[in-house]
Amino acid sequence: MSNPSPTVHQREKYKDLLPKKDPKTLDNRFPLYLGDWIKSDPRKDDDLAMDNLDEPHMKRKLAILKKHPEIESLYGHDSRTSFVTIAAAAAQVYFAYLFGRVWTETFWGFIVFAYCVGGSITALYGVLIHEATHNHAAPTVFLNKLVGLTANIGIPVPIYASFRRYHLEHHTYQGVTGMDPDLPLEWEKKMIRGNAALKLLWLFIYPLMYVVRGAAMKKTPSTWEIYNIIFTLTTDVLVAKFCGLRGLLYLFVSLWFGYGLHPGAAHFIQEHYTFDDGQETYSYYGILNKPYMNIGLHMEHHDFTKVAWSRLPAVRAMAPEFYDSMAYHTSWLLVHWKFITEPGYGPQSRLGRSIEDHKAARKTVGKIRRADEHAYEEMALDAQKKSD
């Protein structure tokens, strides 16, 4: 029944650089904050794997900063993101014009281009919207919201404001059932399970799942979500007017490809689907981090949400024992392949926790900070003894 995981790690290499577990610590996951739960297997499990502790990243951040306080120097935005956003939006609208007004006779050229180029740009929009969501694209919150709306020009549905709202909740309540909007719905877990054909179809309609999961939260649209709807309806009308309906269709097809079965969308599976026991967040270290602005460095991002995309590799470089010791992916293509073809992976391959357990464990943060300090003091004494 076991699944060969596509992940790798270098835990043995770095084990002596990590502080030792203290039996008196209030969280037995210290220092890597790996759990002792077993991943869910859709061949025999109907639901998510469950944990009785809080999400690990706040405590991981404290543990890492205690040893590597220099990481705080990496905090801040990267204004280049704004210029990339403008260029990406302009490029996609230009291609919409070409297919709507110039290249109007081609069908297969339309489809291939929409997948290879349009889908790739749309996947990049997701990264840009993500950066704007965390205020990494500009110096103020308002300017970041404008960047997010600009990225939404090339996406014909209003995504930015809703993504911002629900993604920030995902960070706060990672894995909390009923509160983390990134978790699969009941019908996804029951219907898809480990069936390869159904998983393929499920990934194909993944753009729709973003809308359905958000709607399932049953929340009244926020002011900025209403602004986003008005803004996107306006840009869609303008695209239809100047690029034609076929140009607008190009944007829809690009969205479907770019958020579905596309290499640039594999990070949706890579980030939190549990390929290994005890680990609920994964990074991807591969060549596609270059065009996709390090979106694969998800462990680093969850640990340090104040660090912009361009400085996430520096987080790993400063604290390799905390990142290379974790399981990570090296191929997005392999992520999709393994997830689809292996019957032991499915929508329920996620970790859940109750809000009561999350809150109870989170109350120990202050005491854990003091316990971590003791662990590092012991580590320093051991190092001094060895040098003597």
Automatic annotation (TrEMBL):
Stretches that traverse the bilayer: 82-100, 107-129, 141-161, 196-217, 237-259
Signal sequence annotation: none
Region annotation Disordered: where it falls in the sequence: 1-26
GO biological process terms on file: ceramide biosynthetic process
One GO cellular component term noted in the UniProt record for this chain: membrane
Keyword Membrane: yes
Annotated GO MF terms: sphingolipid delta-4 desaturase activity
Pfam families linked: FA_desaturase, Lipid_DES
InterPro entries found in the cross-reference section: FA_desaturase_dom, Sphingolipid_d4-desaturase_N
Span of domain Sphingolipid delta4-desaturase N-terminal: 43-81
Keywords recorded for this protein, A-Z: Membrane, Transmembrane, Transmembrane helix
Keyword Aminoacyl-tRNA synthetase: no
SMART domains reported for this sequence: Lipid_DES
Composition-biased stretches (Basic and acidic residues): 9-26
PANTHER family: SPHINGOLIPID DELTA 4 DESATURASE/C-4 HYDROXYLASE PROTEIN DES2, SPHINGOLIPID DELTA(4)-DESATURASE DES1
Protein name: Sphingolipid 4-desaturase/C4-monooxygenase
Species this protein is from: Entomortierella parvispora
